[in-house]
Give the backbone structure.
Amino acid sequence: MSGRDRYANSARGPPPRGGPNYNDRGYNPSRSAPPRGGGRGGRSSNNDDYSASNASSAPIDPNMPDWWNAKKKAERRQREEERRISVREENERTKMGYNNAPRGGDGGRGNARVVAVNNGAGDDRYSRKAGAEGVGARQMSDFDDTKDKNSALRKKMFMDGGAGGGAGGDDRLRKIATADEELEGRSLMDLVDRGTLMVGCCLILIVVIAVTIPVALISEDEPYVAPPVPDPPSASPTMARQQVYWDIFDRVQRIAGGPDVLGDPNTAQNRALNWIVFEDGMELGPGKDHLHQRFVLMVIYFISGPWTPVEGRLEWGSPVHECEWEGITCKDVEELEAELEGKISELLESGREDGVKIDVPQRIINRLELRQRLVSGEVPGEFSLLYYLQHLDLENNQLVGALPSPLYKLFNLQTLFLEQNQLTNIDAVGEYRYLEHLSVSKNAFQGPLPESFKQLKYLKTLYLHTNAFTGQVFDILKDFKKLELLDLAFNKFEGTLPAELGEMSNLTSVFLGHNEFRGTIPAEIGRCPNLKEFQIDASHKIGGPIPTEFGKLPNLEFLKLDTCAFNGTLPPELAECQKLYFLDVNSNDLGGRIPTEFGKLGNMRTLGLANNDFIGGIPAELSQMAQLEKAYFQNTDLDGVMPQEICNLRDRGNQTVLEELIVPCDVECEIPTCCTRCS
């Protein structure tokens, strides 16, 4: 191998012209030689005896028996060991000659030392290195020429460096000989600790897997998208919003009670202003059409709150349009205009009674539900600024005393729910001239119904139950022709049920129980074709025969007349109410036989005839009530044997099962296989 080829494979490259500088402290003479096994072909596994240690486990000749291969391997190892001993002895002799040689800076003495070394172990060493760099198989005889070339080159290099001083050449030769001796006869596996090598390989494998798997997943699922470059820091949001503070202040002060109220840090108005300017995620400007609406809602919030947030709901103060907040429903102005047949324009132009108007947004609030929200028990005056509101639900709050005056100014209300509060006065309720749905149940009202109720001509539903109202309620309500639902239960109303009930043709539900009514149910009740539910119970002064006109109500589903003073017989006409599923006449003075016609009530689920004076047997026709779940006949004068057809209703496979069947003990009935018990 030529000197150029050798330095082409060296890590440092060829030395500079004029030879290497041996006096350079950064120079490592051992790196001047090409790496072991250099050359593009690597070591020859066939001709290089020096590689025998790496191939010691392979058979010498696969065609020969194992004992022959074992013998040859032993001979090879012995020759290798003898060669190593010879090399070490030669190195020792070289060192001894080097130490005994005279020191000097002239080139002649340097040349002599080089010749002596190169004629010794050094020639053999470098001839083996040159042979290892060859490509393909070579014969051992080829190493002689290579030895001569290497010896000549080493002589030339040392002569060039001798001009700088013999001591430098000697030192370099000593270092080369020592390094070569240490590396002589050792393979890569000998030089590197095998445990360290395995750990390194494992680490490399882990890094490759850690990089490859995420890249593969990204490429398979979706293309990789580099994260966006963050925007540079902007000016302080507080400083930016400070610029619009006074613009918004000027816009809302006229609806907030003036600059003194708005500027007072102790008021809810001031808190709402600061929230809109500095905390609201929407960052409204003074020109936004819903600025006033949002401000009013936050004033209500700060006076009435804080409210317990509900998971999964957008609470008030969320950074979205207020129409998306919990309990708020909005409509477009155009849609509301069509519903009110032009009234909305007049309403929005007139504003509140005192002339104060807010900027009406495109999306306008028409329904506000604040159930269990007004924890302070106070109704903020800002409610009156929502004068276009149509539906307001303040159920189950802590409102006490008279109905708050701001609510009276919501004269456009159609729905007002005030249930479950502690109100005692709603005298001005007649101000709601468009009111259609009113609930004041479960409050603390007492005395007669206010006369202002007569002005509520548009009422469709009226809930007054669970109060302490007294007096002649129907003197006020008898002209309410649009009523659909009337709930007067659990009060102390007096008087009779007027014939005018029959003129309320839109009635669907009537609940009159637990009052002081007297007299009878007017026959005119049969003129209410839409009636589905009628209940008057626990009213001991109501009696007489049950009107047969109930049979004229094709939509009747629920009839509860228990614990009253009804007498006579059960009208067979009730069997015409094919939709009837609940009939309770328990605890009256009814007598006679149970009509067999009741068998036509195929939708009946609950039949209560107990605590009356019925006689005779239980009709087998009742077994046609295929949906019957509960039947009560106890504490009557019924007797005989329970028809087997009725007993069969107790076990109908996957169909509806008669769960309860209670009879007088005079009726023969197997318990519990047929009847559940007797009384």
Notes: The first strand starts at residue 328 and ends at 332. The radius of gyration is 55 Å.
